[in-house]
User: Fold these one by one.
Assistant:
Number 1:
Amino acid sequence: MSENKKTYKNLDIQKEDGKVTIQAEIPVEEINKYKKEVIEEAQKNMEKSGFRKGNVPLDMVEQELGMEKVIGSAADKALNEAYPQIIQEKDLQVMSAPKVSITKFALGEDLGFKAEVAVVPNFQLPKYKKIGKKIAQERKDKEDIDVSPEEVQQVINQILKMHTRAKKEKEDEEKTQIVDKDGKPIKSEEKPGEKETEKPELTDEFVKSIGKFENVEDFKEKIKDNLINEKQTAEIRKNREKIADKLVKETDLEIPEIAIEGELQSVKQKLQQDLKNQDMTMEEYMEKIDSTEDEFLKDQKEHIEKQLKTKIILEKIADKENIEPEKEKVETQAQMLKQKYPNTEEESLKDYVRMMMKNEEVLKILEGSDKEKEK
């Protein structure tokens, strides 16, 4: 089949309030092509008396599967090919999974279907650089961030405590143990004359033993630098959240309900699966977080709406600023993520990396908007 060959006909598209309704038909020839694929795929793993695995005759495979299952699977395959073609041809900026229904389905006839999908609404960007500049002026610079001696000492105390705990665990492994008749330990028994593990003293020798430090003063100075960096990172995060909130507030943008509901269903399904894995009911979870299911879903819906608005606004700014990450960098980052999430499709990982890189560049522009020409 030619790459550009359409696998659908009689296309009709209606747009309304950020939602697109697609109606089309898939020719019976396409259904029959996929029908054959479904049967041949099933044949590979089918075993039947008198036949080796993978050698059951196709007509027997079709009979075993049942006509309803064969045609249904063929229709799914045909839709999965036709739908992306329509999206690409009509350049639709979809932002939700399609809600598909079959409008005509009979053996030996064309397949009719309808798909409802949310698309990115038309909207005007606010003066985003002016917004970024104003908020950036409120942010503390790194040199304005202070770290007190008490904060440094708290970190030192934690390090000494962790070192003492690690030393004690090692000592405990060396202690003799009292065991029961099955050889299982009952309790630890201290060796004669053994003393309680002492907390190490903060000396030049100690700090050199745990890292690349010249002396205690160098150790304290590096702790202070780390604390300043942590506070600076938190300040940048807070600043970016303020920018996102202001962009959303200043933008007249309505998210299609179908997009919000689709995301909300995903949140519910993930929560239900997580609770199932923990042997916890929804009622028990709601009691634990001191909420009701209705309140929880209402909060999630508001959060989803804000996230979607932020995502769309940042994408539009990226387009206006002609921001496009380097292909090689996207592929490198995607490959690194692939090692962590091996079951995720590579294209999905690339899309995610591309979006994150775009957002980072947009936020840098907004944070440094005092050096840019205001729009």
Note: The chain has a mean pLDDT of 87.
Number 2:
Amino acid sequence: MSGECQLPGLCPTLLGKACQIFLTLAYPEGEPSIPASKRAYLRISAESGFELLLQAPVCQLLARPDGGTRGYAFRLGSQRFPHLKLQVVGQGQSELVFSVDTHDQVRVDPKHPDAFAWAELQAANRKLKEEIEHTWEAAGLLTFNAVLRRELEK
């Protein structure tokens, strides 16, 4: 990935707001508990080298089937699960939709010794996803659930 933003409308202010909410809720013990490689996403400013934040290993480009850019996924993790991702995708010509990918849809045999712990982690991830996305909406960011509600109201 070149590091140049390929998603119209995504700017440091918008990504900064989304990341700050995500990281604050995902790491409730505060900034020292956030892995060093992800702390730059806590306070994004226009002068903070935005293009550097759009590079691997934290950021992954999400491609459309035609080769264009669909969006970005940021593997920011959480206190309990390092694979949690903040995703931002373009919708239509001018909207950006934010979502949390729990990245935990693995099916575990109920007889497996870790089945209960895995189910508990998945439940905690779902709860955190709901909390982050609700907080994003309250802060004026568009979420997939808000898009669905809007479509249902038509």
Note: The radius of gyration is 16 Å.
Number 3:
Amino acid sequence: MSSSRHRSIGIHRQPVPERYFVLARLLQVVALLLIACAAFLSIRLWSWSPFWAVAVSLAIVFGYSATLAVQCTAIRYINRADPAPLATRLQLLRAWWQETAVAARVFFWWQPFWSSRFPDRIASGHSRQGVRGVVLVHGFLCNRGVWTHWLPALDARDVPYCAVNLEPLFGSIEDYAAILDAAVHRMEAATGLAPLIVCHSMGGLVVRAWLQARDADRRVRRIVTIGTPHRGTVIGSQLPRRAWLTNAEQMRYSSPWLVALAQQEQIDRRRKFVCYYSNCDNIVAPTSSATLPDADNRFVDGVPHLALVLEPRILMETLTLLGSEE
């Protein structure tokens, strides 16, 4: 969509505040260091063995793939008693490969270098009154760059949007409510309507904490959660506890924080949620932990955690919800 069209409908871009670039800067350093180390070792080893030069370089850059393999192996065991369909070994193999590729794109490019490529698209004046907007909320150890696949699609459909950054990285989930509240307020002021909120992973818990803290049920039309650990996750639960990892501790399976949050929620609030969950989610396990009672829970077969954000079906169905007045 051209810039002239943006001016004609009263759209202006709002830059992402600099104070929210902490994760982006950190990921830039990590990505460049990994590439530099891989290149250095490749040059040193090439004269000895081109094969090992390439193998060592790939192992450095894609070492995280081994962790993903362990996760994909573990979830088949964890999900044995879950009511959702159990993933086949072939599905898990495909999920591992898919997540390896998506993680490289998200953590080596989108989040470190493109987190501000698509600034918030907010209506100005009264030209966009009555057009429902979207607020996007990312998950744990991510930033707004994770929505790089979504923002052009919203742009193409002339949908106002804003994507938040949740920092500090390891803060308490309820403390992020102020960031979300400000984003919702901006969208309400711009459109005159309660927005649709779309969340990935921990982002869904931020919305639930915000709804509870601000009694904000009337300020949101619907909430779409994608791979959100509504009841927590056992992945990583065996690792030593760390007091400074506040949000990670809150997301442990059946944590006291999650139990207390669920006890405070009414049925009408949960009915606002559309929850996407997958049997190949390598972060949220058991599978049904990504569902909510009384919500519209939608099963996605064979897609891993980060790749859920790129799932075409979820994007299309969310855009359908945006135009629905149900």
Note: The first strand starts at residue 11 and ends at 14.
